[in-house]
Amino acid sequence: MRFDIVTIFPGFFAGIFDHGIVRRAIKESLVTIAAHDLRNFTHDRHRTVDDRPFGGGEGMVLKPEPLAEALEALGIKPRETGHPPAPRSQLVSNAAKQPTRVILLSAQGRLFTQAMARELAVLDRAVLICGRYEGVDERINQLYCDMELSIGDFVLSGGELAAAVVIDAIMRLIPGVLGNEASGEFESFGAPDSAIPSDAQGVPRSQHGSGGLLDYPHYTRPAEFAGLRAPDVLLNGDHFEIRRWRREQQLRKTLQNRPDLLENAPLSADDRRILESLAR
Prior knowledge:
Strand content: 15-25%
Structural class: alpha/beta
């Protein structure tokens, strides 16, 4: 998969992708990442990329002309004027049919989620536009962008950090990037049990698919640390008991930290009984 980043700070990405899984994915040609300097598409001696907003107000807005030139240099054509884009609710689910997406990073965008990352991971290419200042001239969004994404309910100084987050989340779901493919399934916001095959050779899984909930807590050696002992259930080798305990802990952690995730989660009757007990 290829990621093209349009930014006024291409140097921001000089070292951020030189570590860990991303570095290995690039080295093995599973992922290509290129940062494009928006100022290279200006034509005045000051290399101006922003201007004051129409109607007044604070800050500056990224101008449409340099952004349009940068996108067209990347082979992205504008939509015909008067022809609205496809409903954005359809754009993620149809990712496999439309292998390139133009994504605007913006505080006004849809919330980026693990489920969205999983669907975008089938793309051949993602072009990420990093907003700055008060944002990007809305006509760029209307003419070129397939989706507008936010990584959370907060405001950043620019879209560069958000672009790095989006790339990392998508990239690690591309086949071959993780050393163990199951690592992308058994984690917070991961797939439900129904979407995860059982282990080979009839060995029961000790993990539980989170089904969009938070992950369970993890422990490693030593068994006792600072007066605290790892739960005995994890040390007894009983896969079924471990799996049952981990599901309870997933539900407990989600109820405590992100109860909103429970509203749309695929919960079994046993899950609901556990939640009622935890609530009491």
